[in-house]
Q: What sequence folds into this?
């Protein structure tokens, strides 16, 4: 009898352990840092360089998702002893940022860019001149993003769609988030950009689209609420062999919105149908269009 009870106990624990492992998902990883997300928590393990001791120190923390707060600008964060650790996350992505440079659980370093075309050309030139590159910029398997229109502010600033897929630069230990102008549709037909669209061409057929909606700037967080955000979009397949069309409603807070497509396709269109109005400006913004992160 005792043997049967022991076997049942052992099998139960194996099943629970398997279920726990199945629930865990790696949502960020490089040589020094790993972030694991479950239904209940976010676990961060980071090896950071301590200037005082001149060596790498490993720090780990597990944060309960129930403790996520939202600030007045609709950004999510954890409060760690009075220090706000901001989150850019979805079910498959989680990036963290703190204004405190000494926070060991902040992975994002901000790189502010005014002319991204020049940045990309310089990066490609450097790659062609070196045998291998320490840094890399990913396009998230997106070949091209075209827009039906774009807004030009004061005849100087162009809010184009051309670089929406270029969101970050990495090397083996650093993670740089590009802060650049979002796409803002033109206002000739509608001041809020309703009816304007993006056409996204993938490098290969994919079944997902990930959108960073609104004007997202981790240092100027008020810009999210000041400007319009897309509320409802129509997602249309542009593959003749795999036609579909459906509406997607965005939740109104700063996060990665993962849009699951019914089939793998090579090209889709995202059309603005409705918006959340900004508190100050009638400019509808999308900060990034990428695809699901995979380890």
A:
């Amino acid at each position: 009898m005792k043997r049967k009870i022991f076997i049942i106990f052992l099998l139960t624990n194996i099943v629970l352990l398997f279920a726990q492992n199945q629930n865990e998902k790696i949502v960020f990883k490089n040589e020094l840092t790993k972030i694991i997300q479950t239904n209940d928590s976010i676990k961060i393990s980071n090896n950071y360089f301590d200037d005082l001791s001149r060596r790498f120190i490993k720090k780990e923390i597990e944060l309960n998702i129930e403790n996520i707060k939202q600030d007045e600008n609709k950004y999510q964060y954890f409060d760690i002893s009075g220090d706000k650790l901001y989150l850019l996350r979805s079910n498959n992505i989680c990036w963290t940022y703190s204004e405190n440079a000494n926070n060991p659980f902040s992975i994002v370093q901000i790189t502010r860019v005014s002319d991204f075309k020049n940045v990309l050309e310089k990066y490609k030139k450097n790659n062609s001149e070196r045998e291998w590159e320490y840094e890399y910029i990913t396009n998230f398997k997106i070949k091209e993003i075209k827009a039906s229109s774009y807004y030009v502010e004061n005849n100087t600033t162009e809010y184009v769609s051309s670089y929406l897929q270029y969101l970050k630069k990495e090397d083996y230990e650093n993670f740089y988030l590009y802060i650049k102008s979002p796409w803002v549709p033109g206002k000739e037909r509608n001041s809020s950009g309703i009816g304007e669209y993006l056409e996204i061409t993938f490098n290969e057929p994919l079944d997902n689209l990930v959108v960073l909606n609104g004007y997202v700037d981790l240092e100027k967080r008020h810009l999210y609420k000041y400007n319009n955000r897309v509320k409802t979009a129509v997602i249309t397949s542009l593959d003749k062999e795999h036609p579909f069309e459906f509406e997607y409603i965005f939740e109104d807070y700063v996060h990665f919105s993962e849009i699951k497509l019914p089939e793998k396709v090579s090209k889709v269109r995202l059309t603005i149908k409705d918006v959340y109005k900004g508190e100050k400006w009638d400019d509808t913004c999308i900060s990034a269009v990428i695809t699901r992160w995979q380890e």
User: Anything to note?
Assistant: The chain has three helices and 20 strands. The two ends are 46 Å apart (CA to CA). Residues 2-107 form one domain. Residues 197 and 271 are 4 Å apart (CA to CA).
